[in-house]
TrEMBL record:
GO function terms (MF aspect): protein-N(PI)-phosphohistidine-sugar phosphotransferase activity
Locations listed in the record: Cell membrane
Protein source organism: Listeria booriae
This protein's name: Permease IIC component
GO BP: N,N'-diacetylchitobiose import; phosphoenolpyruvate-dependent sugar phosphotransferase system
Keyword Isomerase: no
Transmembrane parts of this sequence: 24-48, 64-81, 93-109, 129-148, 169-198, 204-222, 229-247, 267-288, 324-344, 374-395
Pfam family, one: PTS_EIIC
All copies of domain PTS EIIC type-3, residue ranges: 8-394
InterPro entries, per database record: PTS_EIIC, PTS_EIIC_3, PTS_IIC_cello, PTS_Sugar-EIIC/EIIB
Keyword annotations from UniProtKB, A to Z: Cell membrane, Membrane, Sugar transport, Transmembrane, Transmembrane helix, Transport
Amino acid sequence: MKRFMSWLSDVFAPKMRKITGRPWIAAVSSAMQKLIPFILTGSLIFFYNVFRSYIPALPDLGKIADYSFGLIGLITAFMMTNQAMEKLKHPGYTINASIVSICVFMMFIRPEFLDGSMTFEFGRLGPTGILVGMITGLFVAIVFNLYAKLKFLKNSSIPDFVVEWIHNILPTLVCLGIGAAVVFYANIDIFSFIIWLFSPLQSFGQTLPGFILICFIPAFFYSMGISSWLFGAVTTPIFLSGIAANIDAVNAGLPATNIVTSETVFTAALITMGGMGATLGLNVLMLFSKSRDLRTIGRICIAPSLFNINEPVMFSGPVVMNPMLMLPMWINSITGPIIIWIVMRTGLLNIPSQLIQVGQIPAPFSSVMVTGDWRAVIVYILLFAIYFVTWYPFFKVYERERMMTEETKVAEQQVTV
């Protein structure tokens, strides 16, 4: 075990950090983070609608959600190219190339032209189109990046402003030309093709094995100090398409069926109770620890933990790269989704059917709010007990180690005095 942990610490983790620091990977991760304000704006409206369902006199703010979360696919295309240009150090293209992405995306959603009007399915601009937005943004970024590497007209005597025009016109022509050729001349529905191509990933994400992996893999890497945002490129499309389908189903009078959503994994704070890896139980144990250091850290970290923010306890506990505490975190990241899957699939707990990503709201308040089900309190208590029991034996061993270290320090200080 020690040899394995040493390999993780000295070989695996540094290599992963190097990979995640590469421009293209960093661009995808950063683009996913840039989407959060727009997702949260839509979430606030859905949260507001919870109150509006009880007070019908409140004004309808649905259009705000339509033009924030409802345009998330289009926004993804812009952000993906924007962040790629930034990470690849092409500052001259960050805006223009991103606007070109919007143009190409509008081609890819396959509009129809009739009597001077352009019509398209509004739903293609939203969460259903987030994968298309990602592919579009990367395609445009690749074209502009390759053109930039040509260093065309580098030593030209042409005025600088003309050179700048040329540098933007040529790659724009290539992007729009390829898009027009594929969509309008080859008559290919790129949107449908991309959705079909990635449908196995979407389908697997909504299975129990997919659910477990979506929860476990980010927690595994997080325990080594590697940000979970790396996996946003995979999980965000699954989450958003899942909740969008649930919303449509409920509006049509049908039951929600997609369990794997951000609301289930994060906002309800059942799987991520206290933060990724369900660290609230650990924090509670630290509050009553016999170790002075752990008890102090527990008191400092408990407030953020109650709001499901666990960076303080992860890095000061520490859990990160601590084999004694990493293992129970991994176990919780498996048992949590299994239990939630069982209770939701058997109808013991409602499946979320509203876009509510307004974090961080303490559980079980958030659990009831997201599921619309008071039984979430019972599930919360059950899961907390399971997480607590999982943390307990590992924590007690680690606590003894810390106490021995503290006693040694005290003894050394006394000898020095």
